[in-house]
Design goal:
The chain is mainly alpha-helical. It contains 14 helices and five strands. It has a three-stranded antiparallel β-sheet with strand order 1-3-2, covered by helices on one side. A two-stranded antiparallel sheet has the order 4-5. The termini are far apart.
Length: about 300
């Protein structure tokens, strides 16, 4: 006589009248490798079914998820107050334009480019402030406009996730760390431009949102928009072979600091991953947002003071 194994029995984990809610919790369970199925038990009632031996663990995961995400997502008016994008980007644009005019005209009789460029040898010699000042310098109007356009877009995405002050502080920090990392890896080089900060912003957003991937109700475009935009930006910056590109694109590709962009992206990932700690990431109230934004501006101003004022 042959004994056949008994099929594991199924039990109903929970029932709800919202199909969206049931589908959401089913995704949470699948992410935790808990097999489940959705069954409709009436015109407006659905249930999640799991194997009996998974019941206790499944119930615990659902309860933990519900506790961690209580009151999430925030109401739209709260999200709007979280990030004053117009004001913060206006300051960003004004700051870069003012510094570009000052640098190109040699304001106060100073060579802003020589003093503020990300010079590898000088940075390794202790002039760390160049990692910040280089983010605010541009070689021409076209270079400046490109970074203003892409920078404004990425700033919108990052500040909607982190808030205006914390978002900009993260971008400045990650961008500066990107130049610092390039100085360590590359050695002797000279580079300028906010594009390292733009790629840092891309890294911050990608890592921060994917760190929060358990929050399945997060708006999808916040995860995917920076990825798609980053691919467009990479294409614009000449990822293709310059020999097969038009003449103007080949000239641009020759000036692109690819390693700096990659370093900015990597450091953005690090900063974004840290800020995504916890079920909802690092939370910052209005006062902290203002403080972080002020610190970012003070860091830029202080770096330029160190760069231009003789010691």
């Amino acid at each position: 006589m042959t004994d056949f194994p008994t099929a594991p029995s199924e039990v109903v984990l929970l029932r709800a009248s919202s199909h969206r809610k049931i589908h959401e919790l089913a995704l949470v369970l699948r992410a935790m490798s808990i097999d489940n199925a959705i069954r409709q038990e009436g015109p407006s009632m659905w249930a999640i079914v799991v194997l009996e031996h998974d019941f206790a663990r499944a119930l615990d995961e659902v309860q933990r998820y519900e506790l961690e995400n209580r009151g999430w997502p925030p109401r739209s008016d709260e999200a709007a107050r979280k990030s004053d994008w117009v004001t913060s980007v206006g300051i960003f644009i004004a700051l870069l334009i003012v510094l570009h005019v000052a640098a190109t005209r040699g304001a106060f009789g100073l060579d802003w480019y020589r003093a503020g460029a990300a010079d590898g040898a000088a940075m390794r010699g202790g002039e760390w402030w160049r990692a910040i000042t280089a983010l605010t310098l541009h070689s021409g109007v076209g270079h400046l406009l490109g970074n203003l356009i892409f920078g404004s877009f990425f700033a919108f995405v990052v500040t909607q996730s982190l808030g205006a002050g914390l978002g900009w502080a993260a971008i400045v920090l990650a961008g500066a760390l990107g130049f610092a990392l390039e100085a360590l890896v590359r050695g002797d080089f000279a580079s300028i431009g906010a594009s390292t900060g733009v790629f840092a912003a891309l890294g911050v957003q990608v890592a921060h949102q994917w760190r929060l991937r358990r929050v399945v109700r997060a708006v999808a475009w916040r995860r995917w928009a920076p990825v798609f935009a980053g691919l467009v930006l990479l294409g614009y910056l000449g990822i293709s072979d310059p020999k097969e590109s038009p003449e103007w694109m080949a000239r641009e590709a020759a000036r692109i600091d690819v390693l700096g962009h990659a370093a900015g992206f990597v450091m953005g990932l690090v900063v974004g991953w840290f800020l995504g700690a916890g079920p909802r990431g690092v939370q910052a109230g209005p006062r902290v947002q203002i403080l972080c934004g002020a610190l970012a501006l003070v860091a830029i101003a202080g770096a330029w003071v160190l760069a231009l004022v003789p010691m």
